[in-house]
């Protein structure tokens, strides 16, 4: 997937800056509310649960499951010229949040609901600081041939 | 809101819906507003309140074009496709409280020959989430966002391609009976439906609403204005509701919860009618699945029975619950749901000719917008002098 034309968002936006800085280092970094310890995603400047305005950003395991997805057949998004491509919502394994990202490493027709996914950190746009978090099916190291005996 | 002292849909009007209109947006709006005022039996200059929507003709343009002498209230309701039905509530409050006498709801746009949807400015809430999280992931249209809901719903509740197809085919069959519809002369069969190119799978071409040039208008008043000559159309109750949270789909929990559930629960509690009493339903149909989702959220079915309602009980004319007898956004035209109110009004007056639901007395209308805002109203036929 060619990401060179994807426009970078405001990477210095204080609500998202640690997320983008983490992605640039190959880490999935999310905010945990300092008041009630919830991981809030998308991030909000005031915690809707406890009103705290303080968050601590922490690294998460880049693993989850595929919660839903779409296969885009008509190009509309800035920088995404080539279709089809898949965009998914991934439910993270180690926090009760879901993240949106493009799905790579599999044909769209091979995607299965709730399949294990892992993050891949992909340089995008023209700024060296801009790294996108994409998702790909987790390589199953214990996999056996799918049709044993046939 | 439900009041015994209810307001009325006093007049409705529209242009024909087309792919490319020769007239300007303003000319389209004037045509629809003139028709609605004439239908209401009022002078255009008697309009003293206006409620509009983003991207369509604005309030000041309406005032200027029609030289309205004394507009007292104007508003934009900005919950996307839920705005039109929600505006019935605001208009009712205005006219019943005496703040205005004749409130105009209007939509006018060159939605097909003008700038297309993906190129227009986004009015969605929490723009930071859109730009920081969605656009960068290649997701920037309603089709793409709602496809996530559609696929998860299909997985959890066994909805299939056949159900989505029937929603599209029923809408087209209805539009083929409606001379004002953009798709009046274009039939659609299952083979053509299945050959539709992928837009945002599970949404294929014919799962998606049209983009339309045209206009429609509705006048809400405390008086039915019928002189007993034709049935009055009463706004029996209207409610809106918001998902938790309304500004993000990805982390909503439960994921498939939408604002319409809350609105519909309040609505049915407030009137002595239930979903089974509705003779037809006009359901906001930006995409096929949203019809199924809203029929369930509005109480017409459960996740277990929605498939049966669509394929067996029937959503076409003659079925258990005729849905979108005008053709809806899928096949009549995209007037952001105000055309659903126009159609419900005409159904209740018995003006729909070959697509008339015989004996229609109550019609429900839903709205769905932004990222899951919902609205619902019930209009009722009232015969004789009100």
Give a topology summary.
The complex is a heterodimer of chains A (150) and B (386).
Chain A: H1 17-24, E1 28-33, E2 55-60, E3 63-72, E4 85-92, E5 98-103, E6 116-123, E7 131-137
Chain B: E1 8-14, H1 25-40, E2 49-52, H2 59-66, E3 73-76, H3 83-97, E4 102-110, H4 127-134, H5 142-157, H6 161-175, H7 190-194, E5 198-201, E6 203-204, E7 213-221, E8 232-241, H8 259-270, E9 280-282, H9 288-297, H10 306-314, H11 328-331, H12 338-349, E10 362-369, E11 373-382
Helix pairs in contact in B: 6-9
Describe it for me?
Chain A contains one helix and seven strands. The longest helix of chain A has 8 residues, at 17-24. Chain A has one domain (17-137). Chain A is mainly beta and 150 residues long. Chain B has a domain at 8-115 and 212-221: Thiolase/Chalcone synthase (Peroxisomal Thiolase, Chain A, domain 1, 3-Layer(aba) Sandwich). In chain B, 34% of the residues lie in helices and 18% in strands. Chain B has helices at 25-40, 59-66, 83-97, 127-134, 142-157, 161-175, 190-194, 259-270, 288-297, 306-314, 328-331, 338-349, and strands spanning 8-14, 49-52, 73-76, 102-110, 198-201, 203-204, 213-221, 232-241, 280-282, 362-369, 373-382. In chain B, a hairpin with a 1-residue loop joins strand 5 (198-201) and strand 6 (203-204). In chain B, helix 6 packs across helix 9. The longest helix of chain B is centred in the first third of the chain and has 16 residues, at 25-40.
Quick gist of this model?
By secondary structure, chain A is mainly beta. Chain A has 1 helix and 7 strands; from the N terminus they run αβββββββ. Helix content of chain B is 34%, strand content 18%.
